[in-house]
Amino acid sequence: MLEIIKNYKELNEYPQVFGLFQDEKINEANEYVNKLVEKKFVESKVGIITKLYDPQNEKQIFVVGLGERDNYSFEVFRKAMIGVNYKLGKELSINVKSFLSSFDEKELVKEMVLVLAYYNYVFDEFKSEKIENDLSVQLFTNIDIDKEIEEAYNIAIAIDNTRDLVNKPFNFMGPSELAEYAFDLIESLKNANVNISILGKKEIEAMKMGAFLGVNKGSTAEPKLIHLTYKGNPSSEEKIALVGKGVMFDTGGYSLKSNMVNMKDDMAGAATVLGIFEAVVKNNIKRNIDVVICATDNRINGEALLPDDIITAMNGKTIEIVSTDAEGRLTLADAVTYAQQQGNNEIIDFATLTGAIVVALGEDTTGLFGNNQENISKLIQCGNEQGESIWHMPITDFTKEKVRGSKVADLTNSTGRGAGASGAAGFILEFINENTKWMHLDIAGTAFSTSPKNGAFYGASGATIKTVYKYLEN
């Protein structure tokens, strides 16, 4: 657990951490350290950490390589800071100005908190032997940074909570447990402008959410519709809905998956929107936001949905089931319909929706689809600023024709292997009203990693939370 201590203007006794640019001295360090730098005993390559001992002050010193100053950017800074975590010790004092260069110091502080928290994360809830990751950090500087620390720390905690949700297995995190988590989150926020509504199967049936209920047919766990609201700007009529895919575990249904390991992550979209909501509310962002999650698992029993079945979505459109493993888009169809009925005129949905997006973009880039180029460009720019790669993907007229290509229903729930991510996005688009601005983030590649890079912890990543938070803040 990361703790940022409040005393940042008076240097304490913690081991110090400095940044070092290539072929330069560290102005903030003492003569002893700079003699070692001058003699090339200290590495300046990006991300290399040199451990020293200062006999004069009797303390450890860590020097972090930052590379050439001319090439320095927030992207380089993030890479350099990866190794600054609990593995260096339980207490650290980071000299902020030594990492500054031409950055705004307050913006650097926010980035520093986010990177420290991200690479200090562990998930050991189900291990008998715990990982000792307690880390107390002083960000040593002479300017006031309380506001920046608080804002970044709130985002960091929201990301950690999101990762925890996704990392939990289905027997500890089903629809009811997710609903309970959302309720507890609202209680913990202690904000008069937030509210929650949790609907069970009878209420969902009354709303005729046939697509959502179709996925749930084979489950013994009751589905939950989770609806959170935040009136951050009560004087405005504008509302944005964050819709998260909440398939708590996906077997593929009768279109059975050959490998179901880590299908607990199929609710990463739901966890992501809860994380964004938490960060937005804690930091008092002036936006009106709804969160909508249709939570269920996709399992098999004698009642489960079959290929060739035809179901009717909440908006009255009929859907031919070609693949029961194309289930996430079914839950999202009813979720976005519900969100629009609640008065939201902009929707961003998040889903681990297709393996096709992983084939197209790999595990480092999120696929983005939408119907409003201005918002798409803004979101991509926010991603670039936050170090999260997002790529605009197409929904062509040909794709739309394939989605509407069923000979027995209005729509087909699967358009086949070719351009599969676009087909899934095109299906959701069929449920978006003409005057609704919509973006769809397919996080199937980025939400969870079994072989994380750069020392990140195994499993959930919290991808896109920083980006969408910045988009909403702007």
Overall structural domain count: 2
Quickly give the structural class. alpha/beta
The number of distinct helices, counting runs of at least 4 residues, comes to 14
CATH architecture of the largest domain: 3-Layer(aba) Sandwich
Principal-axis shape? elongated
Per CATH, the superfamily of the largest domain is Zn peptidases
In what order do the strands lie side by side in the largest sheet?
7-8-10-9-13-17-14-15
- In total, how many beta strands? 19
Low-confidence stretches: none
Query: What average pLDDT do the residues reach?
Result: 97
Distance between the termini: 29 Å
The CATH class of the largest domain is identified as: Alpha Beta
Main beta-sheet strand count, sense and barrel state: 8 strands, mixed
How does this model look, in words?
The model has no long low-confidence stretch (mean pLDDT 97). The strands form four sheets. The chain has an eight-stranded mixed beta sheet with strand order 7-8-10-9-13-17-14-15, with helices on both faces. A six-stranded mixed beta sheet has the order 1-6-5-2-4-3, with helices on one face. It is 33% helix and 22% strand. Strand 11 (310-312) and strand 12 (318-320) form a beta hairpin. The protein contains 14 helices and 19 strands. It is of the alpha/beta class and 474 residues long. The protein has helices at 31-38, 74-80, 105-119, 146-167, 175-189, 201-206, 210-216, 268-282, 328-341, 355-361, 373-386, 397-403, 420-429, 465-473, and strands spanning 2-4, 16-21, 49-54, 59-67, 91-95, 135-140, 194-199, 224-231, 240-250, 288-298, 310-312, 318-320, 346-351, 365-370, 389-392, 411-412, 437-442, 448-449, 459-460. The chain folds into two domains: 2-144, 3-Layer(aba) Sandwich (Leucine Aminopeptidase, subunit E, domain 1); 163-473, 3-Layer(aba) Sandwich (Aminopeptidase), CATH 3.40.630.10.
